[in-house]
């Protein structure tokens, strides 16, 4: 069964893409080329391409503002969040050495590490620009809301890299890392629209809590797809997370499970040589046997249910669309 | 003869450091540690250290605001510019593979590339924070002023890296790169204080022009020090720019001089093997013989003189202090 993309994603893409393209066009030609490739607007040779990611975050920004019955769409905020998200993808791919994304070679593979780093830097700087250019009197508050999330993102990536080198990571530390790396920006995406239109703090806070829970569910799904997702669908190499000995949530759950399968996984992770293909599959199987796949799936569902409870009681269609988006995120296959 | 540090630099350091330390303390412990090391506040083992750079840019921000007879000091703007400057140092050191800065191993040597990149990212995000937190009604305008300079900085670094791979670079392209890499942020430092206190556009524009010319002189001095500076004083390895076949302004001037020395330099730069120590010294000598050291020194003086002409006619002591700072920049040995 394929998961059908909710129509709000296409709408968000159509609304936000022109703003993104406009600000990226401000960059010097070299840096612009890398960004346009990364966004999927152009191929490596500069010819036009169909375009990029799922626009989940922009859709959340636009929908969450609708729950506040805002008169205007916070398009600038939606674009700014997408710029920060893509800044982090560009840099993370360099740091993690990931070679493919969205079924294409990563930017650093095509243009080299320095160019990809500069492109990420540029997108981060543009995210401030795009927000502060908007006419909203709350633009500065929204910009600070976004830098808080950016700081969390950086903390999460720092922890993620640190975990690769450490033997012992507790489940609590791992969930904290997942929060920082993923949930913080989704929480920002779910609430920055409300900040940008000047919604009451109570509404901002409910949307932030919704986004945090949904973001956690999102990361848990990502972790599961990193272990059992179909590379043809995800666009990522099979078992890449295990190969890099990432301490994702299901892995840490298994490592700290006190089961025989967890102990075997620990042995494999402690091995000095790179894991063989057979060992990679065995490691994935140990995660499953430790009960960690089931636990992660249940935790996903629980987070999704909690997220829905936080949704503010705004216009019915907006809440319904946000719920639909939330469910899509948890059911997606890529 | 040693160059005495103008007292304004120490004052700027004392005013801005507490703000920098406060915002860096917001970061996660791993990233914070890297930033505190980079700023020279701590050693690699976490013990306190004496502290860092020359605070040229913060001093320019504070002094330029004085030329507008501003009631308040734009400390936030001074801190923000210093954060952007240090973001670029952290990232450039990774991209250029530079191993020492200010007589210490660079951050990526001590903490690894990913940690240094994340630290740079964090400083860039904090620069927005620190400006938008200030109570100035012009903070958002100042933040956009700063992102314009950041974009130029990125363009300059992209061009600098591109030049290393290219055979042909014109003097004009090279001067443009020097402008983007160095002069744009100095121009911002010289004018953002005026933006932050709401000075008239005419004053902002004069200060920006002053900073641009001074920034060009600054980069030309840097290029000369990169060739003939004393490594003991500069804290950089001898002839590092030639070793990396950087196309700095004096080098490009020599390469495009049409002299025999320029032709020999071209041969050396085209060689596929790394240059030997003898060849590095020969290359430096060819730059001198092509007349490019003299030309660069004259160009420096010309830029400095032009810079002074742009200075607005504000309070006498502020203009005098800015002039003193400008002269220090051009006479410095490190």
From TrEMBL, chains A, B:
Keywords recorded for this protein, A-Z: Magnesium, Metal-binding, Transferase
InterPro entries: Isoprenoid_synthase_dom_sf, Polyprenyl_synt, Polyprenyl_synt_CS
Keyword Transferase: yes
Gene Ontology molecular functions: transferase activity
Family membership noted in the UniProt record: Belongs to the FPP/GGPP synthase family.
Listed name of the protein: Family 2 encapsulin nanocompartment cargo protein polyprenyl transferase
Protein source organism: Saccharopolyspora thermophila
């Amino acid at each position: 069964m394929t998961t059908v993309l909710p129509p709000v994603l296409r709408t968000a893409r159509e609304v936000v893409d022109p703003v993104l393209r406009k600000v990226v066009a401000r960059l010097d030609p070299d840096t612009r080329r890398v960004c346009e490739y990364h966004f999927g607007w152009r191929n490596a040779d500069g010819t036009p391409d169909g375009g990029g990611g799922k626009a989940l975050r922009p859709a959340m920004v636009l929908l969450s503002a609708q729950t506040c019955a805002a008169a205007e769409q916070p398009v600038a905020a939606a674009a700014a969040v997408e710029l920060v998200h893509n800044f982090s993808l560009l840099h993370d791919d360099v740091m993690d050495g990931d070679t493919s994304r969205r079924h294409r070679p990563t930017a650093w593979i095509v243009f080299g590490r320095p160019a990809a780093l500069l492109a990420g830097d540029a997108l981060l700087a543009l995210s401030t620009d795009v927000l502060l250019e908007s006419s909203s009197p709350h633009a500065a508050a929204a910009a600070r809301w976004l830098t808080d999330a950016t700081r969390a993102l950086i903390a999460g990536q720092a922890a993620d890299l640190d975990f690769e080198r450490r033997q012992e990571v507790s489940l609590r530390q791992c969930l904290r890392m997942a929060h920082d790396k993923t949930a913080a920006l989704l929480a920002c995406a779910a609430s920055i629209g409300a900040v940008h239109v000047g919604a009451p703090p109570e509404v901002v806070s409910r949307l932030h809590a919704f986004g945090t829970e949904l973001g956690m569910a999102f990361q848990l799904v990502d972790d599961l797809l990193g272990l059992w997702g179909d590379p043809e669908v995800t666009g990522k190499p099979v078992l890449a997370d295990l190969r890099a000995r990432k301490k994702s949530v299901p892995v840490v759950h298994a490592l700290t499970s006190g089961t025989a399968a967890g102990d075997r996984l620990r042995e494999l992770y402690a091995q000095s040589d790179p894991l063989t293909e057979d060992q990679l599959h065995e490691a994935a199987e140990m995660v499953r046997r430790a009960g960690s796949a089931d636990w992660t799936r249940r935790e996903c569902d629980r987070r999704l249910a909690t997220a829905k409870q936080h949704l503010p009681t705004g216009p019915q269609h907006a809440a319904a669309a946000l719920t639909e988006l939330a469910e899509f995120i948890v059911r997606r296959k890529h």
